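Q: What would this chain look like folded?
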Amino acid sequence: MKVDRYFPSSKRCSNCGHVVEKLPLSIREWNCPECGSHHDRDINASINILRMGTRGVQ
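A: My prediction, written as structure tokens:
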């Protein structure tokens, strides 16, 4: 599986799916303005990429 380089894996909340418009690389942790979930940028991205890769696989 190949992930599009523009897929917002770091900026998409892995809890609710909200995408933060601006998230500079210097920001390593952030809180989702929609659901309040706290994210480590890299862990959040890995969860989103995993979900994208396993979507439709049961």
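The beta strands are 29-31, 38-40.
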